[in-house]
């Protein structure tokens, strides 16, 4: 294949990765930004979103778009509810102490993963895409659904941005992020804000998962890779910075797509990890993160 | 900080002395429990225990599920017919997580804790390679159903046998002439980048060259990969045939993305059904497979001319006309491989009867009895077809099926002979000591 179309395909693949990755990483970044909690179980909320999507979609007959759309609404809500309960039952009791929450979320990771294995099983199961359309380009074909994933993910990102910057809820979240104690002094129910943010973060991961299951399959171990990649994205972009997260996700997604296609996927992972190391050494707050106060 | 620490300690305060003692007692009881299960009867009626190393979880889970069903069905048939040497057959299952390290631990657990007579049933080649040394050290027979060339290569040990399924080297050699004659001579290989895939690469390449063909490109894919489109541009434009074989939970993605990339206008496709085991061929997005060809160890779809013993076998293992579970049409079987469990258990029975197996002291005699086997006739014990066992390399050889996708179903269009896949043995296990 000539360089031009080869590059186009690599870019498309990279953009799909970036779209999904930015949603997952955004959730992780929000949780850290507002709560200062490193949520190791984030990948499992993603997995849970995919598994629930399969379950919801399999309940609906008829056109596959019906099941998919219901899953797209229901699955993130259920995952958010589970995260909300987990936050209230576990994290809030630990008083958000950094070491304790890391250990607790590791525990949560294993609990969710093993529950999925017990009740969903070890199989990989597909969710049918809402539509099947294969675009035939002169050099290769490409799935139109993958482009729709990119589009929808941009919409979700804009919606999150809108909520954070233009609504009262967003204002409360930002206030809590900026200074927890002052926010509390002004009557903001910090505990409930935390629970809400944790649920929102998990919900975003679940949205990404529902978008990806028609391309990949729902599997109980699928949370591992996205967790690592979103940590990379969040560190490079700057913890708690929405703009940085999105930019870093596009950067990592594209470089992953292009490098792994022209060279090897292993090299892409190596370079991403190297970038993390460099950022940690020379700009620990990330590209767009505010310096620690 | 001190406040935080206090709250941590309070959490632990829930564990009282009494509950700790209770927990310890329960744990001790669990550990001791297997010791109480003893057979009061004479030794002769004690069951023969087969440890089944099963891929219940991990990347081999779909195979594990069906290997387990077939094993249960085959054991039931053997027991209904009076067991082995008049003793019932008992299958003890341990999950190896499709992981070589856990595989070796499972073999040790079988030998030391369950005290089984032999270990059986492993599929994934890296698990076999990881577990075989443990079986050799513990001197316990290890009957695998794996396809890999590692057994025949002579690199395992005297206790490791593969009598129920043809190895990849013979499979690749037997399909190569048909591919060269019917599909094309310029072949690109797409395979998983580990032992099993390397067997395909190493043995298909010379086999196709012997037919005047050539391998124009090799595309290895890491077995944990979840996205495949990025690999397809490596397939050269002048390829006549894509020879694909993939494993793991992402096989459906692999085939779907291949379809998106090439559509129906791409090169000819010849796949090992591994790329689609446990996956419904009529899944949306797989329409492009119509007309393409697959290797099958045993046909997934019921064939019009199949003998009665095949029909009986399919009924016993619980698969319908389409090769899916009789109870759930969406639960597609791994028909092309799982027959190996059925046949291997029957060979275990035959070997134990031939050497009048009494207990673990006769393990070496049992291996020798298996090594002495040669021809196996097609029939209820060997529903896949007739076989030829080579005791020197502990490997069996059988006929292979080449099937074409017609109207969304696989139809056998060619059956290779045992001679097509035959090769010179490169080892002699019988010369090794026990």
Automatic annotation (TrEMBL), chain A:
Family: Belongs to the binding-protein-dependent transport system permease family. LivHM subfamily.
InterPro entries: ABC_transp_permease, BCAA_transport_permease
Keywords: Amino-acid transport, Cell membrane, Membrane, Transmembrane, Transmembrane helix, Transport
Database matches in PANTHER family: ABC TRANSPORTER PERMEASE PROTEIN, BRANCHED-CHAIN AMINO ACID TRANSPORT SYSTEM PERMEASE PROTEIN LIVH
Bilayer-spanning residue ranges: 6-33, 45-62, 68-90, 102-122, 142-164, 193-215, 227-254, 266-283
Stored Pfam families: BPD_transp_2 (PF02653)
Subcellular location: Cell membrane
Keyword Transport: yes
Membrane topology label: Multi-pass membrane protein
Name the record gives this protein: Branched-chain amino acid ABC transporter permease
């Amino acid at each position: 294949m000539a360089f031009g179309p080869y590059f186009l395909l690599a870019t498309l693949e990279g953009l799909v990765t970036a779209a999904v990755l930015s949603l997952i990483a955004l959730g992780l970044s929000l949780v850290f930004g507002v709560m200062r909690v490193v949520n190791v179980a984030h990948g499992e909320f993603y997995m849970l979103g995919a598994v629930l999507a399969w379950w919801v979609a399999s309940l609906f007959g008829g056109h596959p778009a019906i099941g998919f759309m219901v899953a797209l609404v229901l699955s993130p809500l259920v995952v958010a509810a589970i995260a909300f309960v987990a936050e209230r039952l576990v994290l809030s009791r630990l008083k958000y102490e950094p070491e304790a929450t890391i250990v607790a979320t590791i525990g949560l990771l294993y609990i969710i993963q093993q529950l999925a294995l017990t009740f969903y099983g070890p199989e990989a199961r597909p969710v049918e895409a809402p539509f099947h359309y294969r675009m035939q380009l002169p050099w290769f074909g490409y799935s139109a659904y993958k482009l729709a994933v990119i589009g929808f993910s941009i919409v979700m990102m804009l919606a999150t941005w809108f909520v954070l910057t233009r609504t009262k809820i967003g204002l409360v979240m930002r206030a809590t992020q900026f200074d927890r104690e002052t926010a509390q002094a002004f009557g903001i129910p910090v505990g409930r804000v935390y629970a809400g943010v944790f649920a929102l973060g998990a919900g975003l991961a679940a949205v990404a998962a529902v978008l990806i299951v028609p391309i990949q399959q729902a599997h109980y171990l699928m949370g591992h890779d996205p967790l690592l990649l979103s940590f990379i994205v969040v560190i490079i972009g700057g913890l708690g910075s929405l703009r940085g997260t999105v930019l870093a996700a596009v950067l990592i997604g594209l470089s992953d797509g292009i490098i792994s296609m022209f060279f090897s996927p292993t090299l892409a992972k190596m370079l991403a990890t190297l970038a993390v190391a460099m950022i940690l050494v020379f700009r620990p707050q990330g590209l767009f993160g505010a310096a620690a106060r | 900080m001190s406040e935080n620490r206090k709250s941590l300690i309070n959490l632990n305060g829930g564990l009282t002395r009494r509950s700790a003692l209770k927990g310890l007692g329960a744990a001790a009881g669990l550990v001791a429990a297997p010791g109480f299960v003893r057979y009061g009867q004479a030794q002769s009626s004690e069951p023969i225990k087969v440890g089944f190393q099963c891929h219940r979880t991990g990347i081999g889970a779909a195979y594990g599920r069906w290997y387990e069903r077939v094993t249960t069905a085959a054991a039931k048939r053997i027991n209904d017919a009076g067991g082995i040497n008049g003793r019932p057959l008992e299958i003890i299952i341990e999950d190896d997580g499709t992981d070589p390290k856990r595989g070796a631990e499972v073999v040790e657990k079988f030998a030391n804790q369950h005290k089984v007579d032999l270990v059986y049933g492993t599929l994934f080649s890296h698990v076999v390679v990881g577990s075989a040394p443990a079986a050799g050290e513990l001197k316990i027979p290890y009957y695998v159903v794996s396809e890999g060339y590692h057994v025949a290569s002579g690199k395992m040990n005297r206790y490791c046998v593969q009598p129920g399924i043809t190895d990849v080297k013979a499979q690749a050699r037997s399909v190569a002439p048909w591919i060269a004659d019917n599909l094309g001579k310029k072949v690109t290989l797409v395979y998983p980048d580990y032992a099993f895939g390397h067997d395909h690469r190493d043995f298909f390449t010379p086999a196709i060259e012997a037919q005047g063909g050539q391998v124009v490109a090799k595309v290895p894919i890491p077995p944990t990969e979840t996205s495949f489109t990025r690999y397809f541009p490596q397939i050269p434009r002048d390829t006549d045939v894509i020879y694909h074989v993939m494993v793991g939970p992402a096989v459906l993605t692999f085939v779907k993305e291949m379809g998106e990339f090439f559509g129906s206008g791409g090169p000819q496709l010849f796949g090992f059904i591994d790329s689609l085991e446990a996956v419904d061929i009529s899944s949306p997005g797989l329409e492009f497979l119509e007309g393409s060809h697959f290797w099958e160890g045993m046909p997934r779809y019921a064939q019009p001319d199949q003998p009665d013993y095949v029909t009986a076998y399919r009924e016993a293992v619980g698969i319908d006309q389409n090769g899916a579970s009789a109870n759930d049409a969406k639960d597609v079987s791994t028909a092309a491989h799982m027959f190996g469990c059925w046949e291997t258990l029957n060979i275990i029975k035959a070997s134990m009867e031939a050497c009048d197996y009494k207990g673990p002291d006769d393990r070496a005699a049992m291996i020798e009895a298996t090594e002495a086997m040669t021809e196996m006739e097609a029939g209820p014990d060997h529903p896949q077809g007739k076989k030829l066992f080579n005791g020197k390399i502990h490997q069996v050889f059988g006929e292979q099926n080449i099937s074409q996708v017609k109207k969304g179903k696989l139809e056998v269009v060619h059956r290779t002979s045992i001679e097509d896949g035959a090769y010179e043995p490169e080892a002699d296990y019988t010369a090794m000591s026990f």
